[in-house]
Design goal:
There is one protein chain. The protein is mostly helical and about 240 residues long. The chain has one domain (about 5-235). It has helices spanning about 5-30, 45-50, 55-75, 80-85, 85-105, 110-125, 130-135, 140-155, 170-180, 185-190, 195-205, 210-235.
Length: about 240
């Protein structure tokens, strides 16, 4: 067994992931769709503004969850071989971090440190000190974090200047980058909310493992929401 992963190490990895999630979510919220879609309940439309908080969270879970769960479940095609590697958990953790960032912003949380504390608590059962979650401030560290954030966000890094809509391809590339960065704390990744035991059992089977992986990730996302509710209830 390797050395225990410190809170500072977790924060160093999570901060760029959480920050990179912002531009991706912004791409989903950005208006610019045809006027005929104004009545469709998606971020940036009039119908969206009429929905309550719970409906917004349901949208993120169901719509964003379907998209990201498909991408995350792809390693399941390898059956037990993929299960022995941290690929599934890396992608799953990136997906859940993306959802948690959306949930935090729907609740009015704009501070990166608080988003990181939420993610660490929900995903890894860690209660991070606010000062640690704020990140290091020595010379060069801010620039390094900015560079890592831009690398993870990729084509979404300039979304505010050049609005673009999210696609399965672009979401997949972003999640792969986030997942790879999370491998730096691979010993923590299995702590994240998972699906039921039978989802994981099916996920070990060749070919049909992708079905178990997909259903497991969908179930895991619902558990993420419940744990996030617990975090905010505790804070209140």
């Amino acid at each position: 067994m390797g050395e225990a992963i410190s809170d500072r190490q977790v924060v160093a990895v999570l901060r760029p992931v959480v920050r990179a999630a912002g531009p991706v979510l912004h791409a989903l919220r950005t208006p610019g769709r045809p006027e005929g879609l104004a009545s469709v309940r998606v971020p940036g439309t009039a119908a969206w503004s009429e929905m309550d908080h719970d409906a917004h969270i349901d949208w993120w879970v169901n719509r964003l969850g379907r998209l990201t769960s498909v991408v995350t479940s792809i390693p399941g095609l390898g059956g037990a071989l993929a299960d022995r590697l941290p690929v599934q958990d890396a992608l799953g953790t990136a997906t859940q971090a993306l959802l948690l960032t959306a949930i935090a912003e729907e609740r009015g949380v704009t501070d990166t440190a608080e988003k990181v504390r939420l993610a660490a608590w929900v995903l890894f059962d860690r209660d991070i000190d606010p000062a640690i979650a704020a990140g290091k401030r020595e010379e060069g560290s801010v620039a390094d974090e900015d560079a890592e954030t831009a690398k993870l966000a990729g084509e979404f890094s300039e979304v505010e200047r050049r609005p673009r809509r999210i696609t399965l391809r672009s979401a997949g590339k972003t999640l792969w980058r986030m997942g790879r960065s999370l491998l730096a704390i691979s010993d923590e990744l299995d702590k994240r909310p998972h699906g039921r035991f039978y989802h994981r059992a099916v996920g070990k089977l060749p070919v049909v493992g992708v079905v178990g992986g997909y259903l497991g990730e969908r179930s895991g996302l619902r558990r993420v929401v419940r744990r996030a509710d617990g975090w905010f209830a505790r804070a209140a």
